[in-house]
Structure formats: structure tokens, C-alpha cells
Amino acid sequence: MSSFENKVVIVTGGSRGIGRAIAESFKKAGARVYVTYKNSIDNIHFDSMGIKHAMCDASDFKQVQEFVDSVIKENGSIDILVNNAGLTKDGLLMRMGEDDWDIVLNTNAKGVFNFTKAVCRQMISQKRGKIINISSVVGITGNAGQANYAASKAAVIGFTKSAAKELASRNININCIAPGYIDTDMTSKLGDSVKQGILEEIPLKRIGEGKDVANAVMFLSSDDADYITGQILCVDGGMVM
Ligand code: NDP
Q1: For residue 50, what pLDDT is reported?
Q2: Which residues are marked as active site?
Q3: Can you tell me whether residue 212 is helix, strand or coil?
Q4: Average pLDDT, rounded, for the chain
Q5: What are the pocket residues of ligand 1 if the criterion is a CB atom closer than 6 Å to any ligand atom?
Q6: Angle between helices 210-221 and 17-28 (to 10 degrees)
Q7: Which of 7, 145, 152, 202 is 20 to 30 A from residue 91's alpha carbon, by CA?
């Protein structure tokens, strides 16, 4: 079993939902964990867990660079980056506004570029690093009402494979996790009939939890996954196979 003792880990969008479950898993495994968020965070909870936190808009290139530089300055290294920050602005294409497209692509896709680029130089000089990008099964299958979101998550898959090819020779592994339906604030907006319909599509017959995704992130971040790069792992109860 790999150890995460004193590993430096950044989890973007770690204030809630899947990101929070990932951050807490790393912390429990002994890592030095930093989470980012855009709007607000439960300071008391994160302080009590010893998880550092910073407001940093993933879509803002400069803010991301400054945040990553501060983590490097404090620790001298970055071992693991989890690009998790994301949002939805759902609507049928006919009604989707330009703003809905821009914010989703800028957060979910450009945010992954911003953070990966910011940690890249440090990981290259260390000659090691693990990057896990959180995509979605919707980036593979598409979904009516989510053209912007599906495009952003498909972009993350293409980005992951390209960056994995570029950085493999530097001993940096970059993989993607594509969650299915996970119980968080993001999915709580869906109506009961939609949720029931989704449940019927899940062979394992349960909604996923943040912990299910966190377990996969921990594996792909560990030494046990040293020979895995450029892959897409669906964590979806078997929805997409
Ligand atoms: P939540 O809505 O519960 O949490 C989203 C997190 O991302 C929050 O911490 C939020 O911060 C942060 N965030 C949003 N925009 C930005 C930004 N511009 N900069 C920094 N942080 C930001 O989402 P989930 O936990 O459900 O989703 C996490 C990831 O998993 C996302 O990428 C999502 O697309 C993906 N995913 C989720 C699925 C699900 O079923 N839940 C399925 C497939 C993929 P703040 O609170 O400050 O806004």
C-alpha cells in the first residue's frame, strides 16, 4: 500500500462534494492538502482538519499561477494535483446563452489547463508527479441539455491524453476519472423523476458517493499506479461500459 505521508496535494474545488471527499481522504492518509474554491468555504471544518484553503478561481490564469507559486514556496514541491473544480449551466442548445457556454468551458476545461500548466514546471524539475483530472461520463456519451458541460468534459479527456503523451518521459502520470452520478450539491438540483431514471441506468443500482471517486483518485495518485497514464477510469456503477 502506497504512503501519502507528507505528500503535497492540491485539490481544486475542494470545498464541497467530490473535491471535499478527495481532500479528506488525502489528509487522513497523511498528506499536506490544499483545497481551492471560488465562493465560500466552511473555514472551521477545514481548519479543524488541518486542510489549507484558498479562494482561487480556476478559470483565472494569473490567480492560479500565483496560488501554485505560493504552495511551491511553502513546501518546495507539489506531488499530486487533482483538477476537480467544475460547474454546470444546463439548458437545451436552442436556449443556451453565450455566458452559459463561456463560464462552463472556462471553469471545467480552461481551469484544467491553468492548473496543469502552473504545476508542470515544478513536476518536471522534480522528475515526478501525478495529475488526476475529473471529467464525467457525459464527456464520453454526450447528454441532452448539457452541450456546454459535455464539451468541457470531453475537452478534459483530450487534454489528459495529450498532456500524458507530452509528460510521460518526465515521469509525470496524467489520468482522468469520469464519474457517473454522484450525490452532491451539483446533482441535488435534479428532479426526483430524473434521478429515478438515472438510477435505472446504473447496473450497480445505487447512486455514487464522493468517497467512491476519492478511492479511485487515491489509487491513481499512488505508486501502485506508476505504470498507468493517459487513461479514463469511469467511476459510475457500470453506467458506461
Ligand atoms: P459541487 O457543485 O458539489 O462542488 C463544486 C466545487 O467546485 C466547489 O468546491 C466549488 O467552489 C468549486 N468551483 C466551481 N467553480 C470554481 C472555480 N471557477 N474556481 C474554483 N473552484 C470552483 O460539484 P461536485 O462535487 O458534484 O463535482 C466535482 C467535479 O466532479 C466537477 O468537475 C464535476 O463536473 C464532476 N462530476 C460530478 C458528477 C456528479 O454526479 N456530482 C458527475 C461527473 C462529474 P464554490 O463552492 O466556492 O463554488
Answers
A1: 98
A2: 149
A3: helix
A4: 97
A5: 12-13, 15-19, 36-40, 57-59, 84-87, 107, 134, 136, 179, 181-182, 184-187
A6: 50
A7: 202
pLDDT for res 1? 57
Annotate 30-52 with DSSP letters as a single string: T-EEEEEESS---HHHHHHHT-E
How confident is the model over 198-224, as pLDDT tens digits? 999 999 999 999 999 999 999 999 999
**Ligand 1 centre distance from Cα of residue 137 (Å):** 15
Alpha carbons 67 and 55: distance in angstroms, whole number: 9
Instruction: Choose which residue among 10, 12, 15, 18 to substitute to test ligand 1 binding: the one with the highest number of ligand atoms within 8 A of its C-beta.
Output: 18
Length of the chain: 241
**Domains of the chain (ranges, CATH numbers):** 8-182+209-234 (3.40.50.720)
Other Cβ atoms within 10 Å of 70 Cβ, number: 14
